[in-house]
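Input (structure):
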């Protein structure tokens, strides 16, 4: 399972519910460092600094599930209409979603 983590407790909640192989990515080294330190005892949970637009460090079909719970919302916050994205925003969303499909 892969999720864009931010500083959310979702990975911990999933771990406590029995999911023991979780990869969390975020583009912020500060967030990842804090999460690694805070949850260092969770065996099987990884915290990786990564841009969701380039997940090439993983082989294809690496994940059974990819959770996107706010990454696109955060990246598209400047868009005036979520149903009519700018060309730049549409390209970015397309890149991210293709990454998700390829690696899951």
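Output (sequence):
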């Amino acid at each position: 399972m892969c999720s864009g983590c931010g500083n959310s407790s979702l990975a911990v909640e999933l771990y406590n519910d029995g999911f023991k192989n979780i990869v969390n990515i975020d583009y912020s080294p500060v967030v990842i460092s804090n999460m690694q330190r805070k949850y260092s005892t969770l065996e099987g949970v990884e915290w990786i600094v990564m841009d969701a637009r380039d997940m090439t460090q993983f082989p294809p079909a690496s994940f059974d599930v990819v959770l996107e719970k706010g990454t696109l919302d955060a990246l598209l916050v400047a868009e005036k209409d979520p149903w009519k994205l700018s060309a730049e925003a549409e390209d970015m969303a397309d890149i991210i979603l293709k990454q998700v499909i390829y690696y899951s």
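Notes: The radius of gyration is 14 Å. The chain has a mean pLDDT of 89.
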